UniProtKB/TrEMBL annotation:
Gene, per the UniProt record: COX2
Cofactor: binding comment: Binds a copper A center.
InterPro entries for the chain: CcO_II, CcO_II-like_C, CcO_II_C, Copper_CuA, Cupredoxin, Cyt_c_oxidase_su2, Cyt_c_oxidase_su2_TM_dom, Cyt_c_oxidase_su2_TM_sf
Any one biological process term the GO annotation gives: ATP synthesis coupled electron transport
Organism whose genome encodes this protein: Spinibarbus caldwelli
Record protein name field: Cytochrome c oxidase subunit 2
Name of one Pfam family that matches: COX2
Length: 230
């Protein structure tokens, strides 16, 4: 999860998020190179009184500064489109979960099971256990098996919400009357935090998302206990 004074992204916990981090570094290096070149040109123009007469009217340099930006845009666009298609790819999910946004909590329904669903509310500050995070912890976590393709169907019951977990590279709008879907694979066990990312009213800041990735055997034990309690 994020920590104070952090400048970059959270550590990736899914293959798609790893691709996004690599693309971010790729694009940032291009920005650095362009910024360095522009800064050098500005300093050179301000600090010297000499004038190169061949630059004042040069077809060659105009060709270069027309073609070069086009090449740079292609170098950015191609990997960007590749990741865009990867994020939309949903192949044979092992588990489907329906996440429904409410004012101001989330409810989850495991559609592959007959009667497995629950509401997930934020834990109030006064009820937090030692080691839990304020405004991020919930009373019921969305438990998933690690290294398995998970499909999440996202919708809302009242107003616009957005289901987002940064370390998994997932963000999907929850629209009333519409069913959106996204998919991810948790590549390692852990607890991953997110929040509603669409302003949805007075308590928008108080509807966190907690995804807990566990080994398949532990997930089966958890699901059995939940079904027994239901």
């Amino acid at each position: 999860m994020a920590h104070p004074t952090q400048l970059g992204f959270q550590d990736a916990a899914s293959p798609v998020m790893e691709e996004l981090l690599h693309f971010h570094d790729h694009a940032l290096m291009i920005v650095f190179l362009i910024s360095t070149l522009v800064l050098y040109i500005i300093i050179a123009m301000v600090s010297t009184k000499l004038t190169n007469k061949y630059i004042l009217d040069s077809q060659e340099i105009e060709i270069v500064w027309t073609i070069l930006p086009a090449v740079i845009l292609v170098l950015i666009a191609l990997p960007s489109l590749r990741i865009l298609y990867l994020m939309d790819e949903i192949n044979d999910p092992h588990l489907t979960i329906k996440a429904m946004g409410h004012q101001w909590y989330w409810s989850y329904e495991y559609t592959d099971y007959e009667n497995l669903g629950f509401d997930s509310y934020m834990v109030p500050t006064q009820d937090l256990a030692p080691g839990q995070f304020r405004l991020l912890e919930t009373d019921h976590r969305m438990v998933i098996p690690m290294e398995s393709p998970i499909r999440v169907l996202v919708s809302a019951e009242d107003v616009l919400h957005s289901w987002a977990v940064p370390s998994l590279g997932v963000k999907m709008d929850a629209v009333p009357g519409r069913l959106n879907q996204t998919a991810f694979i948790a590549s390692r066990p852990g607890v991953f935090y997110g929040q509603c990312s669409e302003i949805c009213g007075a308590n928008h800041s108080f509807m966190p998302i907690v995804v807990e990735a566990v080994p398949l055997e532990h997930f089966e034990n958890w699901s059995s206990l939940m079904l027994e309690d239901a």
